[in-house]
């Protein structure tokens, strides 16, 4: 008998990839075979992932391991098989973080969840896989975060290449509400992060927050899931369980389902995990948001956040933790109403919410008040490149009411760069009266806010908005607190015939593109 077993195991080992599902262990590491083509190794002293072999090819980079932040340091690492799943628990001694790695038979995935009880230095929490660029050269959104051969021009993370194009890992970002799967890929495989269901419930800054997804360097293709950061953060961090989420391996162009089922985590004793039975939902109607704008309902309190897209005037939330939540209604990304709702486990609460945005007649409007600058000049490019990129259109602009398009007015203005923006419009005798001028901004940097001049009349300085201590527009970010400013312009400011509005910037900041700036949502002269 013993003789036979010996022969069988030698044969199985020689097959390599066809080994069975399960956990094995050496003195220094745990080895997990998913029996789905993926075999990965976890360092027993710090929980680092040190090997990621898919179909026999090693994808783990050689310079640094994969893990949370830059590694959890000395940790208690345990491995076990629970209810047919492999579960590895990494409890950090240095950081207030416990990381879980879970494998399910036949899946080429590492399922994960991250429990944390306090802010982790340097103020961010992220999953970071350091994969081989040689095997996976294409990043999220292609080459926008590919810094190879390029030189840092700003903050050590924003690069310019010899062809005048710019690169930054921030340019790989997508809105959390849309970012359920993102992948890096090569000729043999793709590796994807999957954030299904309520994976973002413990993140911060709402459905339109965007964060780094990948960065391509000479040796490492870095694949991220940012759970929280200080990158244009508008809310306090939340604590508890992040995820569950997964890193999934597949063929080139593989795209795992964004409805990945992680409900089996309820059987694995994961700290902070709240099963569906301990949750409730909210459903209701939305009204008053004009056609053509996405309608989003957003729930938030200090413990959790959720969102739902409303279609045909109806929405249903995801499975939420019990509690009382603020409810925001957005016309695209523009806040048009708020309310509160209380969620109870096992129940569906009803909350109907109507837009409170007034519908005022205007003499003219440029762009739409939708919380996004994409309809203005360079708005189509700003998420993926620096304002100095050679592919950008010129900054500044002259807009003539009646003949110009919204794309003639710049989506951002700087105090020391980018030129000025003017709007020329004509008024009849009847229209020469007092008017309200309104300008919506989506993000401000270094206190930047609009200065307004109508002919020779100058509007008062509205004062610096709440500071967001983070670079914004130069790193592809467009969304912050979203201040809307109004000025009551007296009749004496206007003339019959041709009038000129000049829009500029109050605030200073550093030189050039890091001078005080703001991003424009829309502007209008009300009747
Ligand atoms: C595991 O981590 C320890 C501590 O950082 C390190 O000394 C060791 O070389 C690592 N082992 C492997 C297999 O990477
Ligand atoms: C609604 O928004 C206003 C203005 O931002 C805020 O003061 C108020 O607390 C919010 N109410 C709710 C119910 O969230």
UniProtKB/TrEMBL annotation:
Its EC number is 4.2.2.23. GO terms for biological process: cell wall organization; pectin catabolic process. GO terms for cellular component: extracellular region. It is an enzyme of class 4 (lyase). Residues 21-272 form the Rhamnogalacturonase B N-terminal domain. Pfam families: CBM-like, fn3_3, RhgB_N. GO terms for molecular function: carbohydrate binding; rhamnogalacturonan endolyase activity. InterPro entries: Carb-bd-like_fold, Gal_mutarotase_sf_dom, Galactose-bd-like_sf, GH-type_carb-bd, RG-lyase_II, RG-lyase_III, Rhamnogalacturonase_B, RhgB_N. Keywords: Carbohydrate metabolism, Cell wall biogenesis/degradation, Disulfide bond, Lyase, Polysaccharide degradation, Secreted, Signal. Gene3D superfamilies: 2.70.98.10, Carboxypeptidase-like, regulatory domain (2.60.40.1120), Galactose-binding domain-like (2.60.120.260). Residues 279-350, 363-525 form the Rhamnogalacturonan lyase domain. SUPFAM superfamilies: Galactose mutarotase-like, Galactose-binding domain-like, Starch-binding domain-like. It is found in: Secreted. Residues 1-19 form the signal peptide. It catalyses: Endotype eliminative cleavage of L-alpha-rhamnopyranosyl-(1->4)-alpha-D-galactopyranosyluronic acid bonds of rhamnogalacturonan I domains in ramified hairy regions of pectin leaving L-rhamnopyranose at the reducing end and 4-deoxy-4,5-unsaturated D-galactopyranosyluronic acid at the non-reducing end. Belongs to the polysaccharide lyase 4 family. This is Rhamnogalacturonate lyase. It comes from Massarina eburnea CBS 473.64. The lineage of its organism: Eukaryota, Fungi, Dikarya, Ascomycota, Pezizomycotina.
């Amino acid at each position: 008998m013993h003789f036979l077993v010996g022969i069988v195991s030698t044969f199985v080992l020689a097959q390599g990839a066809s080994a069975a599902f399960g956990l094995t262990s050496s003195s220094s590491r745990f080895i997990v075979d998913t029996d789905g083509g993926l075999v990965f190794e976890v360092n027993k002293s710090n929980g680092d992932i040190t090997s990621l072999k898919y179909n026999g090819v090693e994808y783990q980079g050689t310079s640094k391991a994969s893990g949370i932040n830059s590694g959890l340091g000395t940790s208690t690492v345990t491995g076990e098989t629970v209810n047919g799943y492999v579960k590895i628990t990494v409890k950090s001694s240095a950081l207030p973080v416990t990381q879980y790695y879970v494998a399910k038979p036949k899946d080429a995935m590492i399922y994960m969840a991250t429990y944390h009880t306090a802010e982790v230095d340097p103020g961010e929490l992220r999953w970071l896989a350091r994969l081989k660029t040689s095997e996976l050269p294409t990043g999220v959104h292609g080459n926008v975060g590919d810094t190879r051969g390029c030189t840092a021009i700003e903050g050590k993370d924003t690069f310019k290449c010899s062809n005048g194009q710019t690169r930054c890992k921030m340019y790989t970002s997508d809105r959390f509400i849309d970012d359920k799967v993102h992948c890096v890929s090569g000729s043999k495989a793709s590796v994807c992060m999957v954030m299904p269901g309520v994976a973002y419930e413990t993140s911060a800054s709402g459905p339109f927050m965007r964060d780094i997804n990948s960065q391509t360097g000479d040796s490492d293709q870095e694949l991220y899931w940012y759970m929280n950061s200080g990158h244009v953060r508008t809310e306090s961090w939340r604590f508890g369980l992040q995820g569950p989420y997964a890193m999934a391996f597949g063929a080139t162009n593989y795209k795992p389902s964004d409805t990945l089922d992680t409900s089996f985590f309820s059987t694995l004793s994961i700290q902070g995990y709240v099963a569906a039975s301990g949750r409730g939902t909210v459903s209701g109607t939305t009204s008053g948001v004009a056609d053509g704008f996405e309608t989003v309902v957003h729930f938030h309190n200090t413990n959790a956040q959720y969102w739902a897209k409303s279609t045909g005037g109806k929405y249903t939330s995801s499975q939420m933790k019990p509690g009382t939540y603020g409810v925001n209604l957005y016309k695209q990304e523009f806040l048009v109403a708020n309310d509160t709702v209380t969620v109870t486990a096992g129940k569906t609460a009803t909350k109907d919410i109507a837009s409170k945005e007034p519908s005022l007649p205007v003499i003219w409007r440029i762009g739409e008040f939708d919380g996004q600058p994409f309809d203005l000049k360079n708005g189509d490019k700003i998420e993926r490149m620096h304002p100095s990129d050679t592919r950008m259109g010129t900054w500044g602009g002259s807009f003539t009411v009646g003949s110009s398009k919204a794309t003639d007015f710049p989506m951002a203005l700087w105090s020391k760069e980018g030129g000025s923006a003017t709007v020329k419009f004509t008024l009849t005798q009847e229209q020469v009266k007092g008017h309200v001028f309104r300008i919506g901004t989506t993000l401000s940097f270094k206190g930047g806010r609009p200065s307004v001049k109508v002919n020779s009349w100058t509007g008062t300085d509205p004062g610096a908005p709440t500071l967001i201590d983070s670079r914004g527009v130069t790193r592809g970010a467009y969304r912050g607190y979203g201040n809307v400013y109004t000025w009551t312009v007296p009749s004496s400011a206007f003339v019959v015939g041709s009038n000129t509005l000049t829009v500029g910037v109050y605030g200073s900041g550093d030189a050039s593109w890091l001078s005080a700036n703001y991003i424009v949502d829309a502007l209008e002269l009300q009747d």
